[in-house]
Amino acid sequence: MIPAAFDYVRPDSVAQAVSALAGAGEDAKVLGGGQSLIPVLRLRLAYPSTLIDVGRLAELRGVHDDGDAIVIGAMTTHHEVMHDALVGEHAPLIAQATETVADPQVRHRGTFGGALAHADPAGDLGAVALALDCEFVATGPSGERRIAAADFFLDYLTTALAPDELLTAVRVPKLGPGWLSHYEKFNRVAQAWSIVAVAALVHRENGSITQARIGLTNMGSTPLRAVAVEHALAGADASGEAVGAAAEHAAEGTAAPSDLSGKSDYREHLARVLTKRAVLAAAGS
Amino acid sequence: MTAVADPPAETTAEIGKSRLRKEDQHLITGRTTWTDNMSLPGMVHLAILRSPMAHATITSIDTSEAKKRPGVIAVFTGQDFAETQGNVPCAWPVTPDMVNPGAPSLAVTQVNHVGEAVAVIAARDKVSAQDALEAIDVEYEPLPAVLDMEAAIADGSPLVHPNTTSNRSYTWAFESGAAGTGAPIDDAIASPEVTVTRRFIQQRLIPAFMEPRSTVVQPIGEGVTVWSATQIPHILRTMLALTLGIPEQKVRVIAPDVGGGFGGKIPVTPEEIITTLVARRLGKPAKYTESRSESLMSAHHGRDQIQDVTITAKRDGTVTGLDVHLFADMGAYLRLVGPGVPLLGAFMFPAIYKFPAYRFVCEGIFTTKTPTDAYRGAGRPEATFGIERIMDELAVELGRDPMELRRQNWITHEEFPFTTVCGLTYDSGNYEAATAKALELIGWDELRREQAERRERKDPVQLGLGISTFTEMCGLAPSRVLGSLDYVAGGWENASVRVLATGKVEVVVGTSPHGQGHETAFSQIVADKLGVAFDDVEVIHGDTQSSVKGMDSYGSRSLVVGGIAIVQATDKVVAKARRVAAHLLEANEDDLDFEAGSFTVRGVPGGSAGSSMSMGEIAFATFTAHNLPDGMEPSLDSDATFDPENFSFPHGTHLCAIDVDTETGRSTIRKYVCVDDVGTPINPLIIEGQVHGGLAQGIAQALYEEAVFDDAGNLTTGTFVDYTVPSASDLPSFTTERTETPATSNPLGVKGVGEAGTIASTPAVVNALVDALRPFGVNDIQMPATPERVWRAVHSGAEKSDRAEGGTTAYGGASTGTSDGSDAKGEQL
Ligand SMILES: Cc1cc2nc3c(=O)[nH]c(=O)nc-3n(C[C@H](O)[C@H](O)[C@H](O)COP(=O)(O)OP(=O)(O)OC[C@H]3O[C@@H](n4cnc5c(N)ncnc54)[C@H](O)[C@@H]3O)c2cc1C
Predict the structure, then answer these.
(1) Which atom, in ligand 1's list, is nearest to the CA of A167?
(2) Helix B380-398 vs helix B756-773: angle between axes, to the nearest 10 degrees?
């Protein structure tokens, strides 16, 4: 449980970090809170030559208001996110999902951006970012660019970030009035990863759902949107029966894994049950 | 006689007080001395290369590159120690013809499980040792993995060990007719009115103690001093001497603070032997500490039995016979008490019931998996599960209430002492009282009503109610009984009580704690017996140089055997003190009353000069020895070695109410009530702690934990991401109560409590779960009853409760290959 040797760099600014990353070559890795990366190193499942520690960069931490969006610094810890007033006001779905991540120790070190950059399909924040239509801010040698959530997650542990790019922030669009949300997680023990989880955002008017956005955790090699459910929910009654019928589509287009926590047929079933529960909980019915 | 340091402290009865544990001061504030904290001048650090193969011949090992790595001092393989390492000891040849193929500490020609030690590197620091592992080049010629017990003993199965003719190590049998302890089982089975047969699976579990195992060995001349995270310093001392041919008097073993064991630190380990061999070969102190990954795959596992249980009864519900056949997985090797673990259950299957006839047959089988040995409860949880599950099944078969059926068949409190169908004599108990209290506490009738209602309205969340009316035998053990079971050691315990000049007391005892609270409980006993203050008692243990004799801690024995040795030693101290007091008070010994730490001349008004002496005054007078009775040794110190006449038999009634979400398969324990009878309580707070932890582990077997191997024999639950140990947030708030029926077999009336919660709780939970699912046609569910298994059971009637195979969810849900070191040569986790 001792990592192989590596070089360690701790830049003082994003600019320094970007140039250090560019200079360190292919086998360099960015270190955030270390909650995913360090276990991988300790198990010697990866052998990076250099770690560039951006976890303590003040400019990457904190949440601020930017008009039509709130901006969460990539290295804001889970704990900070959970207790942030702007997040609570504009994106309670993020706070609620973050509360289910791991345990207090991990939440004090692990970061919002680190979790998303890690892109584990069992992680809870990817589905949430998808449902919220977040934008990922990446900074590289040629400057800054924004990546839509729908384009960010490419494959298992793989994102659209280039090897020389840092994730610096995540922009969360503010939702207008009438939007409600719920995160429904299903796991085996309290601190465990999701077997399946569902992030539900619904817009409710006069007892019916006008619009819905549903994110699925751990139903494929990336977080997914349950598009068929979203279509079925648009204009549907916020009743158990209607929502249940819409939720029957939850596993469509997914490729759920089979592992010790559940075979894919079980996960598909869970996706349907949990989608119904998440939507009903969000809609408050 | 004025030099006594302190006035006698105020003493009220200590026994029965819920004192906070005195050892927690350092144990929970980071002031511990774990073995891994040891650092000695010139010490080398070891890393062990472990087999990535479940079964293979070692065709070559090249260590030359590793030897050149920075910081590396030496690299050894099994060949280097082939002549000296002997075998990892097994102390329980359960039958005369038990096959023990031998267990090298470092594999020499063949590996028989993933994680077996193949080579060891000694380096200047731990990192260098670890880094150099990847430079060792081992070539393996794969052999077929042997994973399934029944297939392993079928004709034509590949053999785990080439020097055997079968993978069956032993067959151990008991039959009440032949033993003369009951009727012949064949008669019961031949003409039963009702028969129920079930196969239950006891999955493999991992003890998962908090502190990984660690050993430091310092060679001193011919001998060694060994620090080890062990439950058994005394047995380790003897076994190291026997295994390595070191004279026993030259071996000192110290168990410093030990962070949990649950049986997982009961055997002598290959790593202890390897560290000793390397230290002696190099003439330098050596330290080995395992990683968590190594611990999970290499430290022994527990349980892993297939139980075929048949119960026979009359139509009126009276049980007439019990027939049990076990397959017990030994894993690749026989560890210290591994073969005997199922036998500790042999005597417990009949439990609290009056069976007239009983048969028990156990076959111990080799597979290419991690060896098994004791895990909390050792044999008794398995037995309790088997009997308590089959009683429920019999109740269903007869259409009877499960508690009523138990009541009809259990030993009533008037019938004690009661000799069971396997010849054990239960000294005391009151099953009626414990059960009545438990039923009342949980609100049983109300829950039954709610259950009926939910069934009626087909609520997706169903309620299940489960019972476990258990007993167990603990306090290992009467030496004569151990002898009759072919165990090679006794079960006595030794204690000495030393009274210092200032009246303070040292208690030296041969038990060896790893989190139980011995210092507190033993201090309470001695405080009462000698009438000294609780804080004036110091308990010394865990070092064979100060605690010279002992049989260590396991099998809920420390209080019921060690504690009684302490009581007997204090009795001797009091007798000596009485003699001194009588002499100095010029009274007859028989005329002295001893109370609250003072001897008083009976009939003389209290307070009058020269009528009374405190223990402190007597201690000082004995220390100066100026004026002692003629011929008396100037010492109050006393030893005692206690060999119990019988086991102790804690019992209790555990009830579980569980909510089962039939849509997701998730089960949530709503209420858990247990009323345990552990005899006279010494410290109720410690009892609660033991019960709570025990419940957590028993519930973990029912719902959460399982060591899973893939088809190639790799442990796929090789991290705590996959081996899901529950935490407090996964468990309900327990209601724990007691009845007190003192044991009659010891002067304190105490019974063991270390294992009770684990032994009792597993069947209570599974019975509750199955009870909830009966309307779906479910009559069994495999453990751990994961949500997936429950869901499958609900949706396919009965036994379709497979768990997904393969892969691991380590590092986040998707397969990342196994984490058991099998994927890369020399990779060390
Ligand atoms: C015991 C345990 C349980 C857990 N349970 C859950 C759970 O239930 N749900 C859940 O969602 N997560 C869970 N996690 C994961 C946790 O959320 C992540 O480990 C953590 O949030 C990752 O963030 P980090 O800052 O620690 O990233 P690190 O571990 O430092 O990095 C993770 C990856 O992201 C890259 N990276 C980090 N920062 C950046 C950046 N700024 N730019 C580009 N790349 C970057 C790293 O190079 C690395 O590849 C668990 C973790 C542990 C240890």
Answers:
(1) 42
(2) 30
Segments of chain A assigned to CATH 3.30.390.50: 181-283
**How far is A239 from B518, CA to CA, in rounded Å?**
60
Report the distance separating Cα A282 and Cα A278, nearest Å.
Answer: 6
Separation CA B119–CA B78 (nearest Å): 7
Q: Nearest 5°: CA angle at B463, between B461 and B469?
A: 155
User: What would the CATH number be for the domain defined by A7-53?
Assistant: 3.30.43.10
Query: How many angstroms separate the CA atoms of B180 and B719, rounded?
Result: 49
Contact flag B804-A2 (C-beta cutoff 8 Å): no
CB distance A126 to ligand 1 below 6 Å: no
The highest-level CATH class for domain B8-32+492-633 is alpha beta
- Helix or strand or coil: residue A259? strand
CA of A126 to the centre of ligand 1 (A): 12
Residues 6 or more apart in contact with residue B297 via CB below 8 angstroms: B50, B114, B115, B370, B715, B718, B820, B821
Tokens 């007597």 found at: B618
Domain positions in chain B are 8-32+492-633
Q: How far is B662 from chain A (nearest CA, A)?
A: 11
Q: Using CB atoms, which residue from B722, B730, B786 is nearest to A190?
A: B730
At the topology level of CATH, where does A62-173 sit? 3.30.465
Q: Most B CBs within 10 Å: which of A185, A259, A273, as the mutation test of the B interface?
A: A259
Residues of chain A with CATH 3.30.43.10: 7-53
Pick from B787, B814, B819: CB nearest A257: B814
Peptide bond before B267: cis, by omega within 30 degrees of 0?
no
Write out chain A residues lying below 8 Å of B291, CB-based: 1
Q: What is the signed CA dihedral for B692, B696, B699, B704, rounded to 10 degrees?
A: 170
Q: Of A37, A153, A189, A218, which to mutate for an interface test with B (greatest number of B Cβ within 10 Å)?
A: A189
Q: Which residues contact B51 (CB under 8 A, 6 or more apart)?
A: B107, B111, B113, B114, B115, B116, B117, B118, B140
Q: Per residue in A83-141, pLDDT tens?
A: 999 999 999 999 999 999 999 999 999 999 999 999 999 999 999 999 999 999 999 99
Quick one: pLDDT at residue B796? Answer: 80
CB contact residues (below 8 A), chain A span 52-111, against chain B: none
SS3 content of chain B, % helix, strand, coil (to 5): 30, 25, 45
Residue whose pair of structure tokens reads 């201090």 in the numeric block: B523
**Adjacency order of strands within the sheet including B638-642:** B537-540, B505-509, B493-499, B638-642
* Percent over 90 (pLDDT), chain A: 96
Query: pLDDT by residue (tens digit) across B370-401?
Result: 999 999 999 999 999 999 999 999 999 999 99
B308-319 pLDDT per residue, tens:
999 999 999 999
DSSP B349-399: TTTTB--SBEEEEEEEEE-SS--B---TTTTHHHHHHHHHHHHHHHHHHHT
CA B29 – ligand 1 centroid, Å: 30
User: Which residues are bridge partners to B601 per DSSP?
Assistant: B592
Chain A 120-139, residues with CB within 8 Å of chain B CB atoms: 120-123
Contact B722 A260 (CB under 8 A): yes
- Amino acid at the residue B207: P
**Greatest CA separation for chain A:** 61
Residue B603 near residue B612 (C-beta atoms within 8 A): no
Domain A181-283: assigned CATH number: 3.30.390.50
* A64: exposed, middle or buried (Cβ count in 10 Å: 0-12, 13-18, 19+): exposed
* Strand positions, DSSP E, B483-556: 493-499, 505-509, 537-540
Q: Does residue B811 belong to the interface with chain A, where contact is any CB pair within 8 Å? A: yes
CA distance B719 to B300: 15
